[in-house]
Amino acid sequence: MLYARRVLAMALTASLLLTGGATAAEPRRIDHGDLILLEVYGSYREMGAQMAELLGEDGRRVLDLDLAFYRRAQPSGLRAWLFDRVVLPLAVGFLSDDTGVMEEGAGYADALGVSRADFLRAQLGAGAVGGSTVLAATRSATADGNALLVRNVDWVDFGGLLKPTVVHYHPDNGDQEYLSAGWPLLQLPTVGINQSGLAFSLNYFATDPQMAPTSTSYPYRRVLQRAKTVEEAIALFQSDFPIVIAGFAVLADAEGDIALLECTTQRCEVFRPDGDWFAHSNHARTPAMHSVDLFRGPDSLDRRRLMEAAFASQAGPLDATRGAELLRNREGHEFPNASVVGNLFVLNAAILEPTRRVLWHSDRIQPDAPFGRYVPIAIDRRGEGLDPIPASAFLESDAHRRDAFAIARVRAALNAHLVAGDPDGALAAWSKIFADPPTQLDRSLLALGWANALIAAQRFEEAVAVLETWVTPGATRVARVSAALLSGVCADGLGQRDVAVARYREASALMEAVPDLSAYDGMRGLAAAGRQHALAPEDVDLGVWFTHVPP
User: Fold this and answer.
1) Reported pTM
2) Same domain, 64 and 162
3) Do 366 and 163 touch, CB atoms closer than 8 A?
4) What are the residues whose beta carbons fall under 8 Å from the beta carbon of 428, sequence distance 6 or more?
5) Is residue 37 part of a domain?
6) What stretches of 227-319 show up as alpha helix (H) in DSSP?
7) Which residues are registered as beta bridge partners of 5?
């Protein structure tokens, strides 16, 4: 830590000299409720060290979490050992990039007191699964005729470990000043905006391969550092393949241009709307990308459709305040633990105004993020004097208090099972929940979480009873498919092979009715495998999205 403090002091001294002693050049952390804002200056290595110092234990906890996920996911065998012990240490010693990712990582590592290889391991092990919902609008669709982006980032925050964080970069190498939103230690922006007014939103794109791990092409950072317009950003994306990670990039600029880029690691396709706005979630819009899209499913389709419906029905053209209302929208489904825009997984809730160079960000943490107060963070004087957008009155209502109590109980059960590794505690928590089932939440989805915990404890008969009681014919297709798969595993565990095969066939039949939904492909494979041979509990762990409540 002493080295990191020396780096921090050097960066501060240099920044003060460059600005004539202005106190604004001092690296600092500002907390707005649950939201962390970091102001950093200098080289990317210096800024990495500053961020680590300013984050303190918030950063250290995320590092430990990500390293644990990396180690847990490591396969056995010589190839995995060589990658971990030889390739990664060589990579941090020899790889470089033109966006400062590796140098920033070195600054982080030095300040955190870990090896640079361990910091890279943590980046590779960042343990979360998510989607996102965004709307881009311009001209006739906005109140002032300028472009606007509104965005919910849906990502697991692991009980508050991943705090919403905005970094205000002030690089000294000629790159543009920019804002990057995400969470501690994240080096790619989930949303961001630069001093030229280029706004950017990165959405998760499930495809294969998901990553090109030896690539040093990070256009998701480069566009904020160098591009001034949407056209310049598109050209930057299409200039250097392979890209390190697949993604959807929604773009808007100060001239009112908007576009969507759909990028695998090897190519990018451009989507332009017919009118002055479009919504996007996590499935491809361009025909050329349909064949490689692995996330076309009810969750993504619902969120996009409901964002479109909310925007189309709003009173008046879009402005920042109405943008906050869109992000809070839970209409379209009866329960908040469903595929809605303002869902329980939202980690970053943000609005970007390119013309004013302002990023508005909620000051509340998951699961209430969309309903918080939106704090204006400005790059230059165009955003001075703006008042925050007030928090939703919903947060003070009896309805919210009832929702919050039910959600907290479910999160406690999920944390015990998935995070703390306490199966007895998880099962006790689930039993109490279903002794007085919450009417605020979709209980068929909650039952999947309870059954999953019972299956992990090999209490198969009890799991079958839970599924038969709570996952009714009126439940969503994804709930019924999951229940059929889990029931098959239970039957296999009880030695009832004929029953298991019937359950796997039931799951297959439900999915055959929606052949174009690629998000079911993993479960299609499980059902097919189950028809061929018995499945064990560890074969069918469908993860944290069982309940649509984040652990």
Assistant:
1) 0.92
2) no
3) no
4) none
5) no
6) 230-237, 287-290, 298-313
7) none
